[in-house]
Amino acid sequence: MTTQAEETLGQSHERILNLKVSGMTCASCVGRVERKLRKIEGVQPSVNLPLESARVIVPAGVTDEQIIQTVEGAGYGASIKTEANAVESDETAEAELAMMRRRIGIAAIFAMPVFFISMFSTFQFPHWGWVVALLAVPVAVYAAWPFHRAAFVNARHGSSTMDTLVSLGIIASYLFSLVQLLTDPAMTAHAGHGSHGGHGMDHLLYFDSATMVALFLLIGRYIEARTQRRSSEALRKLLDLGAKSVTVLQPLKGGGTREVTIPVKDLLPGDKFVVRPGEKIATDGVVLEGRSAVDTSLLTGESVPVEVNPGDQVTGATINASGALTVEATRVGAETTLAQMGRAVAEAQSTKAPIARLADRISAVFVPAVITLAVLTLAGWLVFSGDLNAAFVAAVSVLVIACPCALGLATPTALLAGTSRGSQLGILIKSAQVLEDTRGVDTVVLDKTGTVTEGRLAVVQTVPFGQNDYLTDVLLPAAAVESRSEHPIARAIAETGRRHGALPEVAEFTSAPGGGVRGEIPGQALAPETTESGEVGAARTVRVGQASYLEAEGIELSREQREELRARLESGLTTILVAVDHEVTGLICLQDSPKPDAVAGIAELKRLGLTPVLLTGDAEPVARAVAAEVGIDEVFAGVSPAEKVAKIEQLQSAGRGVAMVGDGVNDAAALARADLGIAMGSGTDVAMEAADMTVMRSDLGSIARAVRLSRATLKLIKSNLFWAFGYNVVAIPVAAAGLLNPMLAGAAMAFSSVFVVLNSLRLARFER
Predict the structure, then answer these.
(1) pLDDT tens digit string along 491-502?
(2) Does residue 447 carry a catalytic annotation?
(3) What is the number of alpha carbons within 13 Å of residue 723 lying toward its C-beta?
(4) Which residue in the list 64, 271, 360, 447 is annotated as catalytic?
(5) pTM > 0.70: yes or no
(6) Which spans in 74-206 are helix H?
(7) What is the DSSP code string of 389-447?
(8) DSSP strands (E only) in 563-709
(9) Residue 602 phi/psi, 5° resolution?
(10) Cα Rg, the chain, nearest whole Å
(11) Is the pLDDT of residue 429 over 70?
């Protein structure tokens, strides 16, 4: 069995196998799968819990079946990831979410009556205990089944996780309560007796603990599952950016060609296709005919369109902005730049080091310790007292009191409070793991276009030469001619000109190769009264473009004009020359300007102890100019999407914790590779889903606010875990000693959960 995911690595003929792994619930599951796979000589696994996947480097002598059987032997499901089963996997994920919603619904319907009847005498009636025991069955069995199943799988392999303690707590709570009822059938014969608030009773029913633990933890598990589902959509959305159909030039037998529209997936290398203005380029290729400006910002993030001529390379999914092109396909399908970027995102996500959840790390020690202590309690009471009933009560009390209600609530409630407050502030946090990632961040890498800058060109300077007027001799004639062009630079100049008045009429407009436009405007629209022909008021020829274009038109620049042009270009400005007839009248400078809040936002990041770094595909002068303006010292310029990932890794290898901030498709792989990925909400869906958090407001101040909220939420989670764990540390020895007062134990258990919830609600006041 082979897949498209397999690749040849070096001379060893190793291959990469991408697996879908089901059934994992915590960090210990990840460790178990990796340990099992490493037992096969030469196998190097990297298992990703949130994505439920494994990236396995497999030597030539090991088959795919061996890898799958090893994972299944560890107690988990495994299948090879292919395009064919992607849809099936999506359907399975949706079905699992629907099943979890049903379990939560069942748990809520039955758990709430159990809770109110058990806790408040107002709701009690004669023999209410038996009704509560019956109502708790669907929750303890059906709703809590995922915990029981996971506990069973772990037990088969001699290990335990949080699921083990949850399952044991639910089972022990229910069975212990049922035994109490069977021992004394009349213990709830009268309303107000035998509950947590009962008076003078020696028995305690834990049906409400069994049901509420299941309900709360199911809700937390559902939130996590939805987050994982959103993460898996990033690659699919990335691939959806490409064109769906293409107009191919099909040769005819008698000579000539005809245009035929076919699906892009049917393109072959060597096929010739047409790209009209405004259309996406179907695949990577080389231009055969036509000249145009191609908007590559979707993939490169650069704000300035790229001029293409015959012989130039073009990239699939970029947009043809102006002229018609005929292109020959060179790379199709999985070989295109877009597909390679998709693999880069997948690679970054799958190799990202998994960080165990805080509760799982505690439970890794806590769960076996509690189970061991319960057994020792049972044995100790039997040895020293010989009282089987007292021994059983003490042992089960240990398990019941250790039931991780508060421990299980610690992370979900704090995360819910933090994310709720974050949504009010325009900050979307994906998971508790993201919060832990913020702890080690000391460097914030910022994409330039759309993150630090506005993401669109605007005229920032109009410089006249000699005695010319900046408006009538430079800006207005240039704006008039550029108004006939579809080029993004032309649109920016035309928009600026219109703000200064009506534009002159244009005749004989042409868009010439080499980066320029030409047109004629009435002579009276300009200040000079003489023309090339010597006639007053006759049409004047206006040329706008690069120096090479003017020179091709026979217009020479003076030394002073060349120095002025060079100075503007070196300062990071996109600069266009304007000539009327054969005189260069001036130049127009454009720039993608920093956002209004950029300086303050960068300063706030520095106050938080973070070092800002600018990372962009733009040219060095442009990047340096923007960085100096907003207060950034470190700059990486002229980098491709793949090189952005390399720069992130370079910083990480230097021991720096890196947060990446971006908004474009070209940032997706870097966002996924960084220790913390932050997407701007004004950016693409792919960037947002590859990132760990999203700031919906496109201001840099939101980034600092997101870091502060993340740190506050993480601190709160730790606080919750400390108090929840501390409750168990105090209560378990008391239960083991047989000194547990049922009323106090019930009150303490309820208070520990209430305390965690109230503690979490403190985040509602964050930055108010």
Answers:
(1) 899 999 999 888
(2) yes
(3) 21
(4) 447
(5) no
(6) 86-119, 128-138, 145-156, 162-183
(7) HHHHHHHHHHHHHT--HHHHHHHHHHHHHHHHHHHHTTEEE--HHHHHHHHT--EEEEE
(8) 574-580, 583-591, 611-615, 634-636, 658-662, 676-680, 693-695
(9) -65, -40
(10) 34
(11) yes
